[in-house]
Amino acid sequence: MVFSCIPRIQVDPTTHGFSFFNFYRYQNNAEKVFISTREGSHFGRVDNRNHGDGRNLLVNPEVVKVVVVVVVVVAAAVVLLLLLVVVVVVVVVVVVVVVVVVVVVVVLVWINYTKSFRRSLESSRVPFEAEAGDLRGAGLSLLRLQSVYQLTASDMAQGDYLGHKGPALSPRDTFEIGQLAFTESRLNYSLEWLNVTLTLLSQGTATSGYPLTPAQVKALMGRVYLFAGSDHLAQSLYDEVKFTDPTGGDSIQLGKELDVKPRALLPKEDDNFHNFSRLCSLENILHVPNPWHPSMVCRYRETSVPYYRFKEELLSVQPFVSVIYNLTSDTETNSLKEHVKDRLVRAKVGDKARTYVSDTRTGDLSWIWDSESHIAANLSLRIKHVTGLETTQDERAGPLSTEAFQVVNYGLGGHYEVHLDPFQGADIEPVMAGSGNRIATLLLYLSDVTRGGSTVFTKAGVAVPPIKNMALFWYNMRPDQELDLLTFHAGCPVLIGQKWIANKWIWTSGNTFRRRCGLSPRASQLDIEEDMRNGYRQLSDAR
Ligand SMILES: O=C(O)CCC(=O)C(=O)O
Ligand SMILES: [Fe+2]
């Protein structure tokens, strides 16, 4: 029997059984490893004869191979399993992230959609100058539109505004407008609206849950006739309603007033209003004859920057009023509107001591200082170049030369009654203290207006329908620095659409030497410009 060397592994008696780990442990520990072989023996068989010092195992290499293979397979399976787990975890994480991202995107898109939907609703709705519930304001707007643009109550009730479609009115609406016109002493309008109400009732038009009878309408008509001095008409209406509805509506009041005979009310409108209404109804810019410089009606307005010039159209010489085309771009005007759209507040009138909401000015406004918008700052600079007037707003450099841009939005019926821009008395705001007064106005149109909304100069006879990006420029002070009373102007009510403007008021401060006073006390702005040109010529001739 020949023994050849085959590995024999002594297994530690304390170890129970054979394991892959023991195998390697003992192989690496020289003292504890027997190397022996047995001819003919099969690898892996236990040699019982060598059990003297413990349980010696004869390890068959095949077994080792199998064990190694098994171990490798198991290890590989474990690794694969781990990999699988990792892959599953990664997939789950990716799916969760994708789902979250999709949900967030959907939510953001939805929020944006609802916001832009709301915005588009807001821009498409025809906003009354009055807030919801302020029926008086809405009614006054309609009466203003009716009188300025000579509309009939019956057309308006059908929603017909000079051919443009508006909302149709119910008998309740027309009755309330009739009532309002009565309280505003607009007796003719009141009768017109009450007659329309009777017609609508006779046609069976719904009163939208508001019980309104012809007798109630007639009782109010009786009162209107009485105040208009038509006692006999008032009496005959009373005779009619005291049988049909003796206690309804204004019946009792009419009965009392017929006994007292109140003094007739005088119509409210004056000549000034007719001029205003006529100018507001003009569709085109009214050119005022310019006897001094006919060739200068249309000219290029040179700026203080060479080759930088704008098309200017002169509308009046005394007072000096002109329009400058394309002073701004759509991007700039849209940005000004966007800047203020969430902070507009109802415009007020008044003085330093008290400002209040008034029917003389109906619109929403906000201010933009140059420091808060580079577009505003650029525009101020452009206005300086174009007008030749200082427009700085640096408080450290002394009193300000301009106010912030005053951005105004007018809705349906929104208007500004006839007024002058400069402050009178001691009304000047502290922020402009020491700046003098508003010597010039540059009014920038930030939108077109479908119908109405012109700026009119009632004394100068100038009407300017809004054109987006056009600027209207005028001097409020004569060259001798006196307030120019020919600059009385107004914003006509908006009939269809919306109107956006930005006012830029230029003050005396910084402009004392920029706005020259001319050679004669009554010099016009054009005279001054000519004097300056001649002066420069003489100066350059002399050189
Ligand atoms: O809206 C207009 O056209 C005129 C506005 C105006 O005169 C003003 O805001 O002072
Ligand atoms: Fe004004």
- What oligomeric assembly is this protein in? single chain
Radius of gyration: 46 Å
With helices defined by DSSP (H or I, 4 residues minimum), what is the helix count? 13
Helix content, binned percent:
25-40%
Distinct ligands, ions and cofactors found in the model: 2-oxoglutaric acid, fe (ii) ion
Q: What is the CA–CA distance across the termini?
A: 138 Å
Which residues sit in consecutive blocks of at least 5 with pLDDT less than 50? 1-57, 116-133
Structural class: alpha+beta
Could you tell me the strand content as a percent range?
15-25%
User: Count the strands?
Assistant: 23
Keywords:
543 residues, alpha+beta, nine-stranded antiparallel beta sheet, 39% helix, flat, binds 2-oxoglutaric acid, binds fe (ii) ion
Write a structural description.
The chain has 543 residues and is an alpha+beta fold. Helix 3 (135-148) packs across helix 5, helix 5 (171-183) runs antiparallel to helix 6 (187-202) and helix 6 runs antiparallel to helix 7. It has helices at residues 20-27, 61-124, 135-148, 153-157, 171-183, 187-202, 214-227, 231-244, 251-260, 271-281, 330-340, 374-387, 525-542, and strands spanning 7-10, 33-35, 56-58, 160-161, 164-165, 298-302, 309-316, 321-324, 345-346, 349-350, 355-356, 361-362, 364-368, 405-410, 415-419, 438-445, 451-452, 455-457, 462-464, 471-475, 489-491, 494-496, 499-507. The chain starts with 6 loop residues before the first strand and ends with a helix. The chain is flat and about 135 Å long. It has 13 helices and 23 strands. Bound molecules: 2-oxoglutaric acid and fe (ii) ion (FE2).
